[in-house]
Give the backbone structure.
Amino acid sequence: MTTLDQLKPGTCGRILSIDGADGIAARLREMGFIPGAAVRAMRPAPFGDPLKCFIHGCRIALRSVEARRICVQLEG
Amino acid sequence: MTLPKRRVALIGNPNTGKSTVFNALAGLNARTGNYPGVTIEKKLGNFRHRNQSIELIDLPGTYSLAPRSPDEWVTVDVLTGDTSVSEPIDAILCVVNATLLHRSLFLVSQILELGKPVVIAINMADVAESRGLQIDVARLSLALGVPVILTSASRKQGIELLKDTLNKVVVEHSQATRLRPLPEAFYAIRESLRSELDAMVPQAENRVDDYVLERALLDEGSESICRIEKHFGSGSRGAVHAAHKVLCETLGIPADVECNARYAWAAKQLEGALQESNTERVSWTDRLDGVLTHRILGLVIFAATMLGVFQVIYSFAQWPMEWFEMGQDALTEIVCRFIEPGILRSLIVDGIIAGVGGVLIFVPQIALLFLFIAILEDCGYMARAAFLMDRVMSLFGLSGKSFLPLMSSFACAVPGIMATRVIENRRDRLATIMVAPLMSCSARLPVYLLLVFAFVPGTSYLGGWITLPGLVLMSMYLVGVFVAIPVAWILKKSILKGEPAAFVLELPEYKWPALPVVFERVFQSCKAFVIRAGTLIFSATIVIWAAGHFPGNHETQYALEREIESLSEQVTMDEQTEQRLSLLQTEHNQESGRLLEISLLGRSGKIIEPLVKPLGWDWKIGVGAIASFPAREVIIATLGTIYSLGGEVNEENDSLVAALQAAKWPDGRPVYSLPVAISIMVFFALCAQCVSTLFVIRRETNSWSWPIFSFTYMTVLAYLGALLVYQVGIRL
């Protein structure tokens, strides 16, 4: 188990949980970051932040502070 | 026979082609306005189909109906038919992205809970088809219980069917049953809360919608609880908290419960209705992203794009702007031919024509900038630009979305502030609007050039590659940027404090920009500027004209003008006439200077002299600064008038440079020195001397407090900056 920001570009994972009940957590959830969803890390922006991932058929950019709140299970 | 007009709200996720659907239905027939008290733009379109006229209300793109700010509440208020915000609607048209059905149904599940007639348009069907996605519309429609139409709005496919369906739905106007996608236990808690609250107010005539109650239960600490309190009284807060606690105990974390339930519901609706062929295709978007967001190449392309945009705005906007100026001059000449010198002519030429010109001069820049913004946004690059620049902009406490508006403000803050509409977070948007006028716009350049040219010694370094005037000019541009960083930071920590904004941004698939959407956007921005900001800019110009004109007896001035004009009309000009003409010109300029000195404007310059003396200024510079509050470039003409050179001077005018260099205090010391010149430049760099900007801020924020705040903080900052520079400068 790790967090989304630790996922290396190209690797896949399955979301286990999202930390928190504030606006940011709500935003992440409504954009598809929900337990059980498959996620693939993609190459981040030039300065290393924000990160980029592929979820529900869509590319989403998010900052690493936000990605740190998403727990994922690594998948092969 | 015409049927009564019906109202349909248009809603959808961002990047679903919602604006293309709006355009395909209503064409260019849109009106924009503001909702009371918020910064959300209200956009209405009308169309008529088979005798039924329909008003389309375009709502901002959103991923869910869980409002956290007053801006986001507008959407819920319009949909639930809150009468304080808008008239009730007859139906909801929800646009979803055919390629992202699972996620799109999240929003749909919330909309179906409102119990309003709903039509779903699955847009970008052509893209989905080319990707091997097969959607069984009949099956999905049956599962959702509402009409579902496949459309490709950019190709105008499915639009007729969509119109037919909307007609049918608004006429039937059947009360739909509210969907219950969440666990039944949740609805039981909500209903018991409902009866508890209803008991608190006898016979509520304006019933709070069940959905508002639902949000209060699900989103802890959001504004929904305040709404409930406002309606049901102070006792209601405790009741909601108690119900929330019960909810947590029975079902777990409400946010998790909601999302899991909605996504599970969405997956169930799509069972059998969506077929994905498993052909692994090479995605163009990923290939393009490989280049456009590449570590080095991506940044190079980004810099080149930005440079290109501003180069084009700078150079192409020059032509129409020159035409406007030529038109203005031609009009002035015609007026001068038919109207004798006098107050009427002065009002028309210096007040009305100058005022209208002052509005129109911005239009080419606004049109060009919005042309680029609309193209870049519609093709998907704008999201990448925000992605690339987010790290840099986070130094300002802002996000990547603020980059383009701030960059545009170097050309002109007016289109820059209008461009902040791409920032959906209200606090980020306001912070961006507040610092945008600190970026040195093109109107400051003449002031810098005049003073640099006159007072900065042309010392050169590094074998002539770098010169002191060039360095000073560059520092003036940097002053604004370096001041903007702490200002934005402080704003975000103080008056714009709140929950940190999430930077969670969808990077849509690249596509060709839809031209109707692009042109509509350009047209709407120009129209909104001319109509709403333009009238105010015009009035302010008239006010400053009056302040410079009254009181004072202009008879001598008019007589001189008449004589000059009759002499200039002579066909042959001998030496004597020429001498006489130049003498009259000097006399006229002196008279204009005298009249300005005794005018309200001149008097206020004298009054504020003690205030500007610590900056190293005399009253003449004070007058120049006051007269430049409507538009900073006015200072050149004002200084020209005060130094009796006539109003028609520009920054390259040698006589103005000479006059400034020769200006003396009563005790014989020269007025202008390097510290004074730099103090004036710093003042102009930081001061909010632009009514257009202030009125655009008023329009975009829909409140007077923001422009007043902006004006105050910038003027104070400008004064302190100029004071610091001068006081340090004279001691070096």
Q: What stands out?
A: Helices of chain A lie at 23-30, 64-67. The beta strands of chain A are 2-3, 12-18, 38-42, 51-55, 58-62, 70-75.
